[in-house]
Amino acid sequence: MFLSREEVYNELKKSGYEYGPCFQNLIKINIEGTSGLVQWCNQWIPFLDSLFIFFGLVTNVEGLYLPTGLLSFKIDPSILKNIILASSTSNIKKQSNTTHSVPVIYDKYTRKCSSVGVEISNLNVNMVSHKEKSNTPILEEYRFVPYFTECVLKGDSSLQLEKYCYASNDVINRIGITLRKNVNKFKLPCHNQLELNMEQYMNETNENRQILNVLFSLITNSHFKKDKVKEVFETYSRFAGKDMLNNVLVSEDSLIFLTQVIQENTFRKLNVLEISGNFPCVIISMTDILKKYFQLSFNKSSIITSKSSDIDKDILAERNIQVLPQGSLTDIAKGKMQDMAISSFMCGPLSELQDLIQTLTSVVKSNGFILLFYKERANPAELFLSTMCGEELQVHSEAVLKGVLQERNLIILSKISDPFGGSLYLLRSPSNASHQTIIHVTEPDYVWVDKVKKEVFEKKSDSVWLVSQDD
User: Fold this and answer.
1) Cα separation of 1 and 270, whole Å?
2) pLDDT band at 69 (very low <50, low <70, confident <90, very high)
3) Strand 26-30 relative to strand 364-375: parallel, antiparallel, unpaired?
4) Which end of the chain has fewer CB atoms within 10 angstroms, the N or the C?
């Protein structure tokens, strides 16, 4: 039983995916989605697009499935050209001077799609949500992003940071005037002149203004409160990760890029664990990004956080994110089933950083990923606080982190840095290339049998491939 061209594209149209006549090249597909015909019209893009639809499209009671990724894509244009030119070939039905019907098959066991001169392997398909029709055009942009790059602030988040820097500088300036000190070197970068009502801004409730709040608490009516210096420094050290300047990289742009890198190197649904401290919850943003841009979901997502955490449990429940107690780390490490672990380190003793990296490596698989938000230098406002308090914030450099990573056999795959001393690292253990042996089993005298025995007995190879190919 086959679905016709009209049935296929009507089903896609119902789900909000409307294809024009030029791209309606899937002629028919069997109900199992394993064989069909695709139209060749001397245009590669519509032809290949039809192949993607063919082995990604499933129309059943469960919904609509479309491809979201593939591991191997091979094209030999000369094969297709030669077959098309040979009009006597039985597999290609000539329809006109420029149009031909080309057979296509899909093997669901090997996840391989084959047509004339085209082979696509290891396809991932996922159910897609209904796409609402909109009269507003959407402009999409594809950019090549270096694995080691700087974060570019833009949009509303950039404006919020500008306001925050302006307000922090205002408070730093007030303290400087009160203490009769030059504080210009401690001011945060402000690129625009803002008109900001400080009284109104300070009255706004916002939990990610740690440095501004502690500095503001040190001055009242032009009086500097020396007796509160140690207290506010300890408070800030504990909650530095909550400050707006220290979680700039918990943004859609940064997380999309690293999510793409991870998806391109896994091709499966992932188990993800976040070990949360005094830092914004990242796994919620990752879950939303995966659904919004990749039409995917995590296989299993969990977060370990303290009972006093301010993370909204209802939001976690809506996204099927399991909340685990601190004591569950031992059992998780025994299972070692996590594909990705997420955490952060802002400041503290070196031993705490070493313990965190050890914990993260203990819970991920040998080929798993670690997403680490790391502060490698203090920003000007933090340096000002340290100067006022006479204590140094325990921030460790990139060189220190690299030393800790080397001890744990971790390499840096990617790094995104922000202007305020923070970085987002993507880490992984180096993969060990396995030794492969290929033995051809076409010799009529079966001499290959002895080769197989030798390889199996001596165990020189991780994998032995037996290849049979007739001439």
Assistant:
1) 36
2) confident
3) unpaired
4) C
